[in-house]
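TA notes. Do not distribute before section.
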Amino acid sequence: MTGAGERRPGAGDRASGRFDLTGRTAVVTGAARGLGRAFATGLAEAGADLVLVDLPDAPGLAETAAAVRAHGRRVRTYGQDLARTGELAGLADRIRAAAGPVDILVNNAGTAALERFNEITPESWSHVMRVNADAVFFLSQRLAEHMAADRVPGRIITVTSKNALVAEAGLAHYNAAKAAAQLLTETLAVELAPHGITANTLAPGMVDTPIDGEFPLEREGFEAAYRERIPLGRYARPEECVGALLLLASDAGAYLTGARIVVDGGVLADQMPRMRFMPPYRSSLPPDDGADDGAGAG
């Protein structure tokens, strides 16, 4: 049985080698745009070959595939509606047959609808749950079986949200689905550990991606108010979430399992945004007069 920290030989001993994914194959769902494209490109840049999954005829999937090829990596694309959960075992089998053993699964695909609690229909509830929670379960289930059979010390990474940890109005079904994916992933971490397979979550905050712009909100006022709420003062760029993903996907994160990495600019660290009501920051350091005291390495 392969241990969680063991990998096939060839990874470098240098720090950068711990993030090297050369020779590994990664599946990324929701790969046509936004975070999915950034994740696929980042994995390719680290050396992985890619399998990209998104809705049939999803605009942008070809562009993501081209970005992967630009890094000299192999890529395959699959059109699949993840809400059709009964088809996901077959999808996993086709991927395994075409691409060989899968080392990394990134459950990135997601959907959301901004609806008040009392306006959510059974159809809307079911669709959000199927894509954000059910698909994570059934695709992870089948690909984890392949990883175990192939003796691959795999990495399952599920992209949740800060909404898996705190509620947000108008997103009852999304909040519930992301929270379910979080606890599901922790369960996978425990059950798959004997096979050397790790399972972790990456929880982004507000990211500058197309999905956010699709909500029926008074956009300018909402974004201004939200940026005030973020200690770093801005939305994340998709590529700023890639470093956390590479940690979880690579040898650098071999002993991380059942963990979550929150990439939210500090939102969850700040229970009350009181900074703007406090006196200005004062440094205890002496003023810098610009003089060179001559000290240095000699």
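Switch to the second chain here.
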Amino acid sequence: MHKHKIKQIIVVSLTVVLVGVLMAQPIKGLIKKQEAEHTAQEQAGQPLVDLAAVSQVAKQGLNASLSKQISDLEDKLQDAKGEERLSLLRQLAGKWDDVNQNAPLGFVYEDIAKEEPSYSNWLKAGDAFSEAYSNIQDTTVASVLNRHALEAYQAALALDENSLDAKTGVGSAMVNGGGAPMAGIALLREVVGKDPKNLKANMQLGIFSMTSRQFDRAVDRFKTVIAIEPSPEAYFYLASSYENIGMKKDAIAAYEKSKELAADPSLSQFVDRKIEELSK
């Protein structure tokens, strides 16, 4: 399994407590809370999340040589225009993509799309921002990345109104902090109505079912996801859903499958503790 996938599993296991918090309050309340936090941040004069900020953080985890290559490209971008600027942005996108740093990658694709507006460029920006906000625990930063994802997907949808990928992106962003969760759910349901095996839409609808405590519906969604593409994440969420409706044996089996597919020590330790609790 790729390293970034393992990291996603670790995030899932570490944030299971946050899932419990989500289940304890309406999703609209959470969205309003995130919006209030962002407004307070702006009023307090704190710097907003932008390419320079996320790049600085991301480079701290890279080796010195690669970090310098990225910094050199960023320096050249300061005065570049036209095709030269586009070329530098594409090189920079390649660097961030290679090391799976989705936050700076999203901002770079956003700049590319502004220079060269196209469905593909806006969709790439949306996908990168979506991956970034889905795997970060700082709610203020996640809120900013979510907003950029929503705007990018909306721009892609404006260029191709029939795109199920763009509709899924818009719907997911709305549900995850875009301020209109029910409109987002309607879009996601429209997508699965046209494409019943759409992986992303079914996953998002499953997660929403969990946060709204509709665990029986969540089970159905995650079963659909697993039938399309088995993943540690899907099995983990399926297990949690089973657990919340008292189906302990099914929960244990799903947790075991998540552990098997992830083959990651951090998740394995968490799952072992969970199985021990469920076996009592």
